[in-house]
Write the C-alpha cells for this entry.
Amino acid sequence: MAVHRQPGTVLTDHTFAVPLDHDAPDGEQIEIYAREVVAAGREQDPLPWLLYLQGGPGGRSPRPAGRDGWLERALDDYRVLLLDQRGTGHSTPATRQTLPARGDAAAQARHLSRFRADSIVRDCETIRRRLLGEDERWSVLGQSFGGFCALTYLSFASDGLREVLITGGLPGLRSSAEDVYRAAYPRIEGKNRGHYARYPGDVEAVRAIAGHLRDTEVTLPGGGRLSPEAFQALGIMLGSANGSHTLHYLIEDAFVPGLARPTLSDSFLSEVQGHLSFAGNPLYAVLHEAIYGQRSVSPGATDWAAERVRRDFPQFDAAAALASGGPVLFTGETIHPWMFDTIPALAPLRETAELLAGREHWPDLYDPAQLARNEVPVAAAIYHDDMYVDTADSLATARAVRGLRTWVTDEYEHDGLRVSGGRVLDRLVRLARGEL
C-alpha cells in the first residue's frame, strides 16, 4: 500500500479484488481502488470510517490536495475512504479501449449490466468487511448518483451502515427513466430562462453560434463534430453554482474577431471539447438511463428516454428556434443517440449502448418496504431548484424513508457539497446526530 503525505493529510492507497458478478463469487475478479484520507497526526486514532460515493454514473472519486473542500470538515470526525466505483479511475476500467476485450457488443452490454448501483453496493460491502471487519459499520456520504447508491445500500445492506448522508441525490423510488426526463425538461427550460435573464446579450450570441453550426461543418480538436445539438448539450453546466457564468464567458469568446467570415476560435473549440468529450467518464453516457431501470416500475427498455421525451418539448428544437427568431435553449443532463455517432470516445460503444437502451427487466434498485422500516440515521440535503434531480421526487422519497431528516435549501445548487467549504456536510452530520 502506497502512503503519501499532503498538507494536513495522510493518504493510503488500497486495492481490493471483488467478483465481477457477486452472484458468482468464485468467477472473474475485478479490482476496486480506494484512497484512504486521514488528518495528519491522527493516523493511529480509532476514527469512524466515512465512505464517499461520487456522482455519476461513471465518475471517479475526488483527487484531494490536502484538506480542501468538504474534506476539511470530514477529517475532523472521520477517516475517509474515497472510492473509485467499478469501471472508473484506478479501478479496473471500462472504456472504449478495454471493452473490446470482452467480445462483441452483446458481450460488452452484458458486462456493463453489472455496473449499476446494486453491484457498487455489493463492492462496498465486500470492502467494508475486509477493511473494518464483519461487525464494524461505517458511514456513507453520497453525492448525486452516490446518493442513489446510498438508497440502494439502505435497501439491501443496511446492516453495514452507521449513518447515511446524502446531498443532491434522493431519487424517485418509483420513477422510470421517462418520468425522470419528463420532469427534467421544464427544469432545464427554467435554468435557460435564468441564464438569459442574467445575460440577455447571450440570446443573440447563442443564436449566432447555433446558426453558424447549422450552416458550417465544424470539427472539434478531438475529431468530433460540433453540431447545434452538441452545442446545446453545454447546458449541462447550468445546474452548478458557477455554471451560468462559465457558459457566458465561453459564449462571449466564441468567434475570432476581425475576420471577414465568422470563424469559431481555437480556444472556444478546445474548451467545448473538454466539456463534451466523455473521454474521462464514458460510463456516464453509456449507463446514464440504465440507472433508472427497475422491472417493478417499468419492465420495458429505457429506449433512449431523454431523446423520446424531448420530442414533446419542441422549444428545445434548435432549428425551429433559429427559424422563428426565438432563443435557442440549451439541454441539460440528457444523453442522446447522436452522441455515439459524433463523439470519438463514445463512437466505438454505439452498438453496446443500443443494446443497453433496449435491455428489459432491470433488477430493482430500491426496496420501499425496507426503507419504510429503516433504522439507520439518514440526513439529506435537497436543493430547491436542482436541475439534475427532481425536487418533488426527492421530497417524496424523503417521506418514504423512515427517520430520514431533510434540509431543503436554495442557498446552493446541485454541487453544494463541493462549493460550500464543508458547510453542507456539517449540516448533514449535525442532522444525522440529532443536534439540529
User: Anything to note?
Assistant: The CA atoms of residues 230 and 278 lie 12 Å apart. The chain has a mean pLDDT of 97. The chain has two domains: 3-173+366-432, 177-357.
